[in-house]
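[stage:ingest] chain + small molecule (nicotinamide-adenine-dinucleotide)
[stage:ingest] validated
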Amino acid sequence: MKIKKVTVAGSGVLGSQIAFQIAFKEIPVSIYDINDEAIIRAKERITHLKDVYTEEIMQSEKEIEAVTKGVSLHTNLLPDLTEAFEKYTDDAWSKINQAIERISYYSSLSEAVEESDLVIEAIPEVVSIKQNFYKNLNQIAPQRTIFATNSSTLLPSLFSQDTGRPEKFLAFHFANEIWKHNTVEIMGHDGTSLEIIEEMYQFAKEIGMIPIRLNKEQPGYILNSILVPFLQSAQVLVMKGVSDSETIDKTWMLATGAPQGPFGILDIVGIQTAYNIIKNYADTSNNELYKKLSIMLKEEYLDKGKLGQESGEGFYKYPKPKYRQPGFLS
Ligand code: NAD
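[stage:predict] done
[stage:export] tokens:
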């Protein structure tokens, strides 16, 4: 089966990015979220992503110009580089404009999935929310529809029975800022059919991602098996009073040459998702450290509206994104 229509459920930080990237690659997308207010925010995020993609392409054009300037090729022997690049960038410009038109919005799940070949779930990292979602989704989605979870840390086997179609269910995990960090980790559970894994592997390539296939289930895949403990270690240092977030980021960046430190990354991920992950760990283990960390994130950040880069403040302060400013869509 060729995937011709996709539903993305949950239009937050990652869901909106996934939807835009798929639409950019010329596949129609339905966005589903819980109510009209969430749909308004989804539209704002998608409009903002159009700006992000526009800036990225403008930047690429500048870089191409710098590289091709002064390069003289025998155009009778080799293609004219500037012309070739212009063709690609013109194509990208028209795809950006058409992407917006390929996205439709629904607060009714049954309408959103009616004709979908694939549902990508990007709803909160909370087991009960995802379980209820899959039970409901199974009742209303066409039998042929593949379900994929973008969960950061939860295993697909946790939900496979709720989906009612374990053989057509797997994890398909994107990284944040997918236009530049374009990997997808593909991870089945024991009952996922190999055919579906292969199909999703091809689909990942079709939407401009680099597919990374895991051999077996692993909480956190490859990326988050490394990233989550890294981010948590940094938070523990602050909690124990060893140092502050800025000094920790500075140390990491200077000593390793990394472009961001752990707290800069946490602000991009979003404090809500970081909190959900730690809260799951705290609830499923007796680890006091996780409990303390989850309380710190809730009281010091979530309760104060400091949700990370998106809200204008997390561990650091940021200019408020344009789409968060009053009247952005009007
Ligand atoms: P988010 O909080 O930004 O967005 C969640 C969205 O889900 C919101 O739009 C919310 O309205 C919606 N929602 C809530 N309950 C719902 C329900 N019952 N049905 C449908 N929609 C519902 O979260 P996020 O950071 O985008 O994370 C979503 C998923 O993607 C999580 O599983 C997370 O682990 C995963 N993920 C996040 C990142 C990241 O960097 N933020 C990276 C990779 C994967």
